[in-house]
Amino acid sequence: MATAPRPRTTTRDPEEITRRLTAWLGARLPGAEAVKVAAPESNGMSSETLLFEIEHPRPPARACALRLAADPAAYTVFPVYDMPRQYRTMRVVAEHSDLPVPRVLWLEEDPGPLGAPFFVMERVQGRVPPDVMPYTYQGNWLHAATDDERERLEAASVGLLARLHDQVPATEAGFLALPGEGDALRRHVTAQRAYYDWVVGGRARSPLIEAAFDRLEELWPRDPGTPVLNWGDARIGNVVYDGFEPVAVLDWEMAALAPREVDLGWTVYLHRFFQDLTAAFGQRGLPDFLRRDRVEARYAQLTGHTPRDMDFHTLYAALRHAIVMLRIAYRQVHFGEASVPADPDTLILHHGSLRAMVQGSYWG
């Protein structure tokens, strides 16, 4: 991880994007300019983020962030980038909860101006736990924090999930219901199977991912529970913090109606993913931070709902993450940055932990 080249995250020309953005902005705010435009950044090689400031006597917000659908020519991580869906999700969450969601300003569904649909939101100042190198490694603000400070951040972050799940009526998020038959969990897993089939189309399939799908069926919950609005990418790397308090909840592209535990499993596992990598490279990491038992207990205390079937849901999170990682690896192959090994499962960075989950030995 420390020496592998980082895969490219954009194929767009920053100068062209700046010029086109300024033209688009001028049509909405006559005389306005987009200034101090940063080069496009990508979050997980998915939607791209453009940071800029508006120069205008009365801007709706001076510091802005633009979320741009992935370049269709860039071997995208996901098959569809539904920017209106993200925009609408953020508005619903802002209207029906007290979560700190950035104020959305404009939605552009026409791909003409920037080459793909996008929306603009107010930019919130603060700091985000890093992914590269992960916050579990030494040398970043969260790792350097005290145990009490990390405890505050953990409590506040689990509280975000509790408030989201409790406060936003599922009826207001009906547009996030996934298509298909069966309950919300069955539809969610069916959608992941379809995504996996898209990822491996024309390429080597993953025996490990397919074994994980089989194991899910063996662990399937008797009662999946009532669906709620799931954030989807529920992890601290998608939160802006002021000190150790959340001030902005970002990245809603994976939002869906699903059982509460789908979000909880993702939160627990994505931390363990970073922690396992850190330990594999000889560092202690943060083994007591965001521990599964503590997250479950805190969520139950806040909501009155005791998380159920978490072996299923953490396995499901690891499986979903594996599919994304496989797509990113095949993206590197597409751009000549890597080659396909004899065992395609080794393209999945956490294949060892995923295999242990399938075998039932990961959590001890």
Characterize the largest beta sheet: strand count, sense, and whether it forms a barrel.
6 strands, antiparallel
* End-to-end CA span: 26 Å
Overall geometry comes to: globular
Radius of gyration of CA atoms, rounded to a whole number: 20 Å
**Total DSSP helices:** 10
- Percent helix, as a range, is 40-55%
| Total strand segments | 10
Structural class: alpha+beta
| Uncertain spans | 1-8
Mean pLDDT: 92
Oligomeric category: single chain
Strand content: 5-15%
SSE pattern, N- to C-terminal? HEEEEHEEHHHHEEEEHHHH
What does this protein look like?
The protein has helices at residues 14-28, 83-96, 141-144, 147-167, 184-199, 207-219, 260-280, 292-303, 310-334, 351-359, and strands spanning 33-35, 41-42, 48-55, 63-68, 104-108, 118-122, 228-230, 239-242, 245-249, 256-258. It is of the alpha+beta class and 364 residues long. Strands 1, 2, 3, 4, 5 and 6 form a six-stranded antiparallel beta sheet that branches. Strands 7-10 form a two-stranded antiparallel ribbon. A two-stranded antiparallel sheet has the order 8-9. Strand 8 and strand 9 (245-249) form a beta hairpin. Helix 7 (260-280) crosses helix 9 and helix 9 runs antiparallel to helix 10. The two termini are 26 Å apart. The model is unreliable at 1-8 (pLDDT under 50).
